[in-house]
Every structure is written in structure tokens, then in C-alpha cells.
Amino acid sequence: MNSLRHPILLKCPTTFRPILAARFYATQTGLGTTSTTPRPKRKTVTPFNDDGRVAWGELSTGEKAARTTQQTFNFSFILLGAVLTGGVAYVMYTEVFSLDSKTVHFNKAVNKVKKDARCTDLLGDSKKITAYGEPTWNKWARARPIASTTRKDQYGREHLIMHFNVEGPLNKGVVNLHKVKPSTESESGGEYVYKYLTLDVKGHQRIYLENADAALDSPAKSKGKLFGISWR
């Protein structure tokens, strides 16, 4: 059949007939029909390449298991991260930010040393006094842990025992701290009070910044209490 005599072409202006005839032969399909293109084959979904683009209904049984495995792993990973974050936050609060944290007691003791004239006479300028914990096996470690222990006695009182190093332009020494927290809040408001706080510098007599035992030798001893705590 002559393409120029096609019913559609006969209705078109003479000028456009050759162009439409060329397109007619290029497509090799009848006008008004559509061509079908085969759908590209997708990759099999696995736990390692699943990005969620394939709808759940299009997945095979094995692919559904793969997606479930991936989502379970992701949820477990998020849950583990939340637990670790909570643990770090708890440690940071109890060790640094809490009023009863070891860091707070350490800083208060250091301030007492720097403000005591007897200590600065031995160590030097208070602005140049540094305090640090115990040396570690790692010589590159900048943070030195503070040696401390907590325990409860037979009366339910909590004891905090700590020691750390101080160093100034003149000397260096060791600070020993012992605090006691009463078993009930009615005594001293439930806060730690000093049993003793001392500074030892080699070649010099021990300096007592706090000494509850010495205070018991005063007339207050007859009352059997010091700072609201019954010392036994």
C-alpha cells in the first residue's frame, strides 16, 4: 500500500504528507496503537541492599524475611544506642554534676587547701597550685583518676574516703579526705560532713584543715554529737 494514499495522509496538506509518511514507516506500527516495553528486572531485595523503594506487596517471601531482618537489626541498634546514651548520662550526673559526686567533693577540698594560709606557706602561690589524681600506666593519659572509696558502716552512715595530690611552686603533698553522710536526713540535712581533711608535705608536720575527732575533745564531747552526727 502506498503510504501517501493512507486515509490519514490524504486528509493532511500536501506539504506534510512526505514527513508523516516517513514517520509512519519509522515506527512500523499502525496509527492509534501503542507499543509495550518489557519491565526491567529489579534486583533481589536482601538485608544489605534494601532501601524500602519496593512495596511490601511486591516482595517475595524470602525478600519479606530479608526486610524484616534488616528492620529488626536497625531497631536493635537504635535501642542499644539509647541504652548507652542513658548509661553515659547517668555516669556523668553521678560522677560530675550531682552534689554528692566525687568531683564536687574533690573541688571543694582543693578550694579549702588553696584558701588555707598554712597550706599556701608550704606549697606556694594558691593560683599556681594544681591538684590531680593517681598516675596511670599510660604516660600519655592526661586525666588522672582520683582514688576514692565509699562504704556504709554498721549504723547506716555512708563514708567517703579520698586522697589526691597537690603541687605548688614550693612543694608538693598529698591531701586525705574523709566525709560521713548520716543515715537519716534529719541529721545535718542528709549532707556529707568532714571527719577529717589533711595535707601531708614531706618533711613537715601534718596540717589538719578539718578534724572532727579533735572537736570531740572539746566540751561538745559531752553531748555525743558533732555537726548533727553521733560519732561512735
Task: Describe this structure as you would to a colleague.
- The strands form 2 sheets. Strands 1, 2, 3, 4, 5 and 6 form a 6-stranded antiparallel β-sheet that branches. A two-stranded antiparallel ribbon has the order 7-8.
- The longest helix is centred in the middle third of the chain and has 37 residues, at 61-97.
- Mean pLDDT is 78; it is low at 24-29.
- The radius of gyration is 41 Å and the shape is elongated.
- It has 6 helices and 8 strands.
- Helix content is 34%, strand content 20%.
- The protein is of the alpha+beta class and 232 residues long.
| N-to-C order of helices and strands | HHHHHEEEEEEHEE
Main sheet properties: 6 strands, antiparallel
Q: What Rg is obtained from the alpha carbons, in whole angstroms?
A: 41 Å
Query: Which percent bin holds the helix content?
Result: 25-40%
Q: What is the CA–CA distance across the termini?
A: 122 Å
Overall pLDDT: 78
- Which structural class is indicated by helix and strand composition? alpha+beta
Tell me, briefly, the overall form: elongated
